[in-house]
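Limitations

Structures in this collection are predictions, not experimental determinations, and the ligand pose is part of the prediction. Treat each record accordingly. The example that follows, with WQD as the small molecule, is included so readers can see exactly what is and is not provided: the inputs are given verbatim, and the output is the predicted complex.
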Amino acid sequence: MTILVTGGAGYIGSHTVVELLNAGNNVLVLDNLSNASAESLKRVEHITGQAVPFVQGDIRDSALLERVFAEHSINAVVHFAGLKAVGESVQKPLEYYDNNVNGTLVLVDAMRKAGVFRLVFSSSATVYGEDAPVPYHETLPRGRTSNPYGSSKAMVEQLLTDLAHSDPRWAIALLRYFNPVGAHESGLIGEDPFGVPNNLMPFIAQVAVGRRERLSVFGSDYATADGTCERDYLHVVDLALGHVKALDFLANHAGVHAFNLGTGQPVSVLQMIRAFEQACGRAIPFEFAPRRAGDLPAFWADATKARQELGWVAERDLARMMADTWRWQLQNPLGYGG
Ligand code: NAD
Ligand code: WQD
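Predicted complex:
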């Protein structure tokens, strides 16, 4: 099989390209490098010993997509490309709807014209909205989202659902990621955010390596066991393997199928700090700060459906997530540019 991987130079995309190649597929990466470095793909080549064909370009470029599908015999698409910073999406809603919603429209239109109907989409637990009961289960309806990023994911889920209902040839997986962290065990690829990290894991790792002085823990008075927010953190390699399983599933299942990809275990911010300290053998200086607007106290996955229907479970534990993040950070203190 040849898989087109949009956004394949990014954090989750690069790890997924490794696992797609390990599973015997061919890949073609399409990425505009707006939030990634082509160095990640060189590292993927090093890890797998295989060439990674790469087209630098934008998913909103319909002429380019037409050429890509004409020149390559693509069997399926794994679609990561998009913008993902929640706070930025509030400042730049049009950019988010354009890249995430319009970009997906252009992509699926090109797929349809090329006769490619198998698609795995990077969705998010954020589509459950602000009021859903935990743990989140796929039978819950999509909820009220609180920012343009979340709304863009919910809109894309809806448009892909309508598309699948319009034509029985479509086979689409909506993979709802919880909180991906960690890095490939080689330490060669990992998460390399531009600027100050928004997310907890890269921030902790940059404090540990001395790039930042201390972590601010947003909120200490939530109604959780230790007062800090709880999330379902999963290892990015487990998440990558979920995409391989989803593609296998789609080979025999038409229609649209949503799956939660998480461990099913809530972990607090303080537990994350302690676990990282164990892995790196250093103290992580932190201070409590006010709650961050828009944060939910606690959510985690019911991942039963992925286990039963995809045969997927998250196998790598918290210690492994931390050890692999630390190896990546230590070997690449300044990320791919270092
Ligand atoms: P990332 O930013 O590392 O990867 C996205 C990639 O897409 C980048 O390489 C970027 O250069 C590329 N890209 C962006 N817009 C593009 C466009 N218009 N055309 C072509 N390429 C474009 O992010 P990631 O963490 O790897 O996330 C991948 C996907 O998973 C995103 O869709 C994201 O919304 C989704 N997701 C991420 C998380 C998370 O916590 N990381 C959680 C849930 C869902
Ligand atoms: C985790 C916890 C923070 C940074 C976001 C998106 C979500 C999904 C994943 C794409 C929270 C706390 C964080 C810091 C902190 N992305 N924190 N200090 O908010 O669960 O999810 O990324 O779909 O849509 O919203 O992840 O890593 O930002 O935060 O205390 O400097 O860590 O308050 O409780 P979040 P996160």
